[in-house]
Amino acid sequence: MRILIADDSLVSRHLLEATLRKWGYQAVIANDGAEAWRILDGPDAPRIAILDWMMPGLSGPEICRKIREKNGEPYIYILLLTSRSLREDLIEGLEAGADDYVTKPFDNHELNVRLRAGRRIVDLQAQLLTAREALREQATHDVLTGLWNRHAIFDILHRELARTSREQRPVGIILLDLDHFKNVNDTHGHIAGDAVLREAAQRMLASVRPYDGVGRYGGEEFLIILPGCDEATTEAQAERLRKAIGAEPVVLTGTQIHLTASFGATTALPDTQSGAEQLIHAADEALYRAKALGRDRVVFSPCGEPRATSR
Q1: In order of start, what are the domains of the chain with their CATH numbers?
Q2: Cα–Cα distances in Å, from 8 out to 52, 54, 96, 104?
Q3: This prediction's pTM
Q4: Is there a contact between 308 and 295 (Cβ–Cβ < 8 Å)?
Q5: For residue 129, is pLDDT > 60?
Q6: Of 225, 232, 308, 226, which Cα lies nearest the Cα of 263?
Q7: 8 Å CB contact between 309 and 237
Q8: Cα–Cα distance between 195 and 145 in angstroms, integer?
Q9: Ramachandran category for residue 32: left, alpha or beta (phi over 0 → left; psi -120 to 50 → alpha)
Q10: Predicted local confidence at residue 304, as pLDDT
Q11: For residue 245, how many other CB atoms are within 10 A of its CB?
Q12: What is the DSSP string of the chain?
């Protein structure tokens, strides 16, 4: 683990650095308070910091306040190193945001114990952050495909519609349905059906831009949000997706499953007042038309009047 040592005394820095290395820590050195703050405010900052109370540039308590005001993550555990022993001084340091303190000259055993306590807190907070991210992933992503779930993809749609109004740029909406998917489940089983859904999801993700939204709308239906795409671009992107999904069969334990999809597409333009429900309805009507025309095709509906694209 990396630990920041901030002390303007060369002797104190060398003593602390040698002690920490003996205990298996990697020391990061700052010669004054200003340098310590630059390190702690930067990317990949050490998770534990030992700050001298009095330093040029910024004092230890001043750095504590700046770190706590930033309220960033992950948490930085701070030990103040001080020759002050008055109760009022120690309270001042803790109120500034320090987690603990060690008085000079420090006792090796005391410092080691306090660092172990700090490391336990830092490790616990890392576990909590990991658990939080896992819960966030579960709350916003479809378990089977890893795509955005229905709730999350609708949030993305509402956000992009607000941006359309604010920035005066269009957004494309594509609703697609895997053709004859029920036959896959009936013929090959639901495990094979799940594998086909996952493969289709990966082909979609590989065919869109990193900032496009791809979500599972329900069952074998998917909703795709294309920021900044006008009618022609949305239609072209839907056609690329159609070709990507049907480019080659899905191979499962020696069985080849030929996969195609039908697409309904529409576009929200800056000068229209189309809401999310209206746009989804237009895309759904276009999708229904694509199926009626024989599936494996794109139908675009600019204003509720769908038209099929050539293949």
Answers
A1: 2-139 (3.40.50.2300), 150-308 (3.30.70.270)
A2: 8, 8, 20, 14
A3: 0.67
A4: no
A5: yes
A6: 308
A7: no
A8: 9
A9: beta
A10: 42
A11: 24
A12: -EEEEE-S-HHHHHHHHHHHHHTTPEEEEESSHHHHHHHHHSTT--SEEEEESS-SSS-HHHHHHHHHHHT-SS--EEEEEES---HHHHHHHHHTT-SEEEESSPPHHHHHHHHHHHHHHHHHHHHHHHHHHHHHHHHHB-TTT-SB-HHHHHHHHHHHHHHHHHHT--EEEEEEEETTHHHHHHHH-HHHHHHHHHHHHHHHHHTS-TTSEEEEEETTEEEEEEET--HHHHHHHHHHHHHHHTSSPEEETTEEE---EEEEEEEE-TTS---HHHHHHHHHHHHHHHHHTTSSSEEE-SSS--EEPP-
- Amino acid identity, position 170: P
Share of the chain above pLDDT 90, in %: 72
What is the amino acid identity at position 5? I
Residues designated as active site: 220
Query: By percentage, how much of the chain surpasses pLDDT 70?
Result: 95
Quick check: 86 and 66 in contact, CB under 8 A?
no
Which is nearest to 200 in space by CA: 152, 250, 265?
250
**What single letter denotes the amino acid at residue 245?**
I
* Close Cβ partners of 288 (under 8 Å, ≥ 6 residues apart): 264
d(C-alpha 85, C-alpha 93), whole Å: 11
Closest by CA position to 6, among listed 65, 69, 49, 66? 49
| pLDDT score for 261 | 97
The span from the CA of 140 to the CA of 162, in Å, is 20
Question: And the tokens for 198?
Answer: 């996952």
- Alpha-carbon distance values, 28 to 25, 39, 111, 167, 171 (Å): 10, 9, 17, 45, 48
CA distance 115 to 106: 13
Least confident of 83-92, 108-117, 209-218: 83-92
Rounded to an integer, what distance in angstroms lies between the CA atom of residue 167 and that of residue 119?
47
Structure tokens at 175: 């609703």
